[in-house]
From TrEMBL, chain A:
Main location: membrane
Stretches that traverse the bilayer: 28-49, 55-73, 85-104, 124-141, 153-171, 191-209, 230-248, 254-270, 275-293, 361-382, 403-430, 436-455
Source organism, top-level taxon: Bacteria
Name the record gives this protein: FtsW/RodA/SpoVE family cell cycle protein
Keywords linked to the UniProt accession: Cell shape, Membrane, Transmembrane, Transmembrane helix
InterPro entries: FtsW/RodA
Topology of the protein relative to the lipid bilayer: Multi-pass membrane protein
Subcellular localization: Membrane
UniProt xrefs under Pfam families: FTSW_RODA_SPOVE
Automatic annotation (TrEMBL), chain B:
Highest taxon, organism lineage: Bacteria
Name used for this protein in its record: FHA domain-containing protein
Region (Disordered): 38-74
Residues that span the membrane, as ranges: none
Lineage of origin: Bacteria, Bacillati, Actinomycetota, Actinomycetes, Kitasatosporales
All residue ranges annotated as the FHA domain in the record: 95-145
Record-linked Pfam families: FHA (PF00498)
Low complexity composition-biased segments: 48-65
Record carries keyword Phosphoprotein: yes
């Protein structure tokens, strides 16, 4: 966009990027790199723990390589002009997550616990299913604009997905958060992760139609454009839904994610800062209001304000009806003992966190074993995924694709912020998973599907127009020039 | 495993991880700095290659000398409306505008028809805008189009709330 405002220069803007190279070979080279790094990490863990290269190295490397290769071939076949960075970034994060999960599997402390299961093989299977979803999205979704037809069906679908955990019988309460459903014979599923994508489709379709009403009909008051009362309807409905999620599923993360995603998309669609102000005020009011009577949220806030006190209460075994948790403090210690360069793979003690060390708190393992330098690199990898998503939105030539890409990458960014901020003690801890890194099937599958949709939009945006057809009118008609 | 080896591996891993980040940023360098400076010589050469590949009109236009070559638009820019800032490179293809999902530029505008207008090069490489029987019309500057009309550089083409123009 920078050069378009300055037509006098000889620069060529590359936003529409028609005729851009497909860059599939760049993607392949980066993918090889993205597979080699986790394999290196895997060998490193083995050498640090048992003084030998782990026996599973070959099968692990082959598994990851096969997934990456299949993903790459699918992109080459079905989305040849898609962004070259998204797939390698996702592969690298997924691979590093697998290594960290496998490393925690090796911990004797965790193996001694009652609930121990070998998580790494399962996560590898979930990742494979995720890549299969990714390929399926590229194969079946030939044009993202098809999704626009399903605007209101998506709304209904998202509501059903969000409400499923509340249905007695299939809803499944794990440690205070009611966000899982149990499918007999298949295991548990976290429908909120999928609702994220479906809801983005609804918001994009809805805002594309309604944005003029939301943007233009407004009164100016104290430097802010106040929307009309009747235009406030949708934001209030989404707000109420996210508050209901908070109350009935006691899941702060999901509720923040949905409301935040809506506010981001609303802002992008209308260019009105007032929506951001409204959104922040409403989410603050909602969070404070619910926290005042919901004990599960109160515990989280307590653990955030004074993690050391929670740790001591938990150690002392105080039984006052509230579950005290040592984990928030332990995560902070893990980050602290990692320092700048970390202790090295396999040499940290983040397994002390115990339960959820490989899911909600996986970032603490990275913080301890790779240090600040490693965590910064990870956050940059996430930032690059978000940047590619926003870039895709800029390059898209249809409003629906723009909004969908912004919504998906905004949700991704919010999720990373909410999880990383929670583990690092910046905001109260929420029960969400770090995309691609953390152990959890629903999360990894949903995020691969999300990357698939982003690739589809970027393919449509960067694809060169079909070869010029000679225009019959131009041949026949004599154009008289002035 | 000796302490030294592990330290080397630890630092080596961080170095490799950061190398990946730097390589990834290199790949999107062109995005970060926004523009690509094209030397005039190389651009003409690129144009010649393209002309050889594609259409005779452009070949003639290239051979007809420097003056026309300099005034040939290379991109179409949306300057007003919801898609402001969107650019489409002009490479001899027909550009369709309208609300239909398969248009090159999809307009989100109550005043646009589904197949509103198209922009294409004629045999001499002159870009032409043609209204495709739209309800509310296509305007070049202030005049409503009735026939296919050649576009000059920088002349605003208005469709509903969207304004586009051709630029070098």
């Amino acid at each position: 966009m920078s050069s378009t405002s300055n037509p006098s220069t000889q620069h060529t803007s590359t936003i529409g990027a028609i005729g851009a190279p497909s860059r599939r070979n760049t993607e392949l080279a980066l993918l090889v790199f993205a597979v080699v790094i986790p394999v290196f990490a895997y060998a490193n863990v083995g050498l640090a723990l048992d003084d030998q290269v782990p026996a599973g190295l070959l099968s692990y490397g082959l598994g990851l390589g096969l997934m990456a290769g299949l993903g790459h071939l699918a992109v080459r076949k079905f989305a040849p002009y898609a962004d070259p960075l998204l797939l390698p970034l996702a592969t690298l994060l997924n691979g590093l997550g697998l290594v960290a999960i496998w490393r925690l599997d090796q911990s004797e402390r965790l193996q001694a616990s009652r609930t121990f299961v070998e998580a790494a093989p399962r996560q590898l299977m979930y990742s494979a299913i995720g890549v299969a979803f990714f390929v399926a999205v590229l194969f079946f979704l030939k044009d993202h604009r098809v999704l626009q037809r399903y605007t209101y069906i998506s709304m209904a679908g998202a509501l059903v997905l969000l409400l499923l955990p509340l249905v007695p019988g299939i809803g499944h309460n794990v440690f205070g958060a009611r966000i899982w459903i149990k499918i007999p014979g298949l295991g548990t599923l976290q429908p909120g992760e999928f609702a994220k994508i479906v809801l983005a489709v609804f918001f994009a379709g809805y805002l594309m139609v309604k944005r003029d009403a939301l943007a233009l009909a407004s009164r100016r008051f104290m430097g802010l454009y106040l929307p009309r009362g009747r235009d406030l309807g949708p934001i209030i409905v989404v707000w109420i839904i996210s508050i209901l999620i908070l109350v009935f599923e006691t899941d702060l993360g999901t509720s923040l994610l949905f409301f935040g995603m809506f506010v981001i998309m609303l802002y992008v669609a209308t260019e009105r800062t007032s929506w951001i102000v409204f959104g922040l005020l409403m989410s603050a009011a909602g969070a404070v209001g619910v926290a005042s009577f919901e004990p599960h949220i109160q515990t989280r806030v307590q653990a955030w304000l004074d993690p050391m006190r929670e740790f001591e209460l938990s150690r002392a075994g105080v039984q006052d009806g509230i579950v005290h948790s040592e984990q928030a403090m332990q995560a902070l210690w893990a980050f602290g003992s990692g320092g700048t360069l970390g202790s090295g793979w396999g040499q940290g003690h983040s397994d002390l966190i115990g339960f959820a060390a490989n899911s909600d708190f996986i970032l603490a393992t990275f913080g301890e074993e790779l240090g600040l330098a490693g965590v910064m690199a990870l956050l940059l990898l996430y930032a690059l995924i978000v940047e590619r998503g926003v870039r895709t939105a800029l390059a898209a030539r249809d409003p629906f694709g723009k909004l969908l890409a912004i919504g998906l990458s905004g949700a991704f960014a919010l999720q990373v912020f909410v999880v990383a901020g929670g583990v690092m003690g910046l905001i109260p801890l929420t029960g969400m998973t770090m995309p691609f890194l953390a152990y959890g099937g629903s999360s990894v599958i949903a995020n691969w599907a999300l990357i698939g949709i982003l690739l589809r939009i970027s393919d449509t945006a960067r694809r060169p127009a079909p070869a010029p057809v000679s225009n019959p009118d131009a041949e026949m008609t004599q154009v008289v020039r002035p | 495993m000796s302490e030294l080896t592990l330290t080397v591996m630890r630092l080596g891993f961080l170095a490799v991880l950061w190398l990946f980040v730097i390589v990834a940023v290199q790949v999107i360098r062109s995005d970060l700095f926004g523009t690509r400076v094209t030397q005039r010589g190389s651009r003409r050469e690129a144009g010649r290659q393209q002309a050889a590949r594609q259409a005779p009109p452009q070949q003639r236009q290239q051979s007809s000398g420097g003056r026309r070559g300099r005034n040939t638009p290379t991109k179409l820019v949306v300057t007003e409306g919801t898609l402001t800032g969107t650019t489409v490179a002009l490479q001899g293809q027909t550009i369709t505008l309208g609300r239909a999902h398969d248009s090159t530029i999809v307009l989100d505008d109550d005043y646009a028809s589904s197949r509103h207008a198209r922009i294409y090069p004629d045999r001499d490489g002159q870009w032409i805008v043609e209204d495709l029987g739209s309800t509310n019309g296509t305007y070049l500057d202030r005049t409503r189009l009735t026939t296919p009309t050649p576009i000059s550089l920088g002349a605003p083409i208005r469709i509903g709330k969207t304004v586009i123009e051709l630029r070098k």
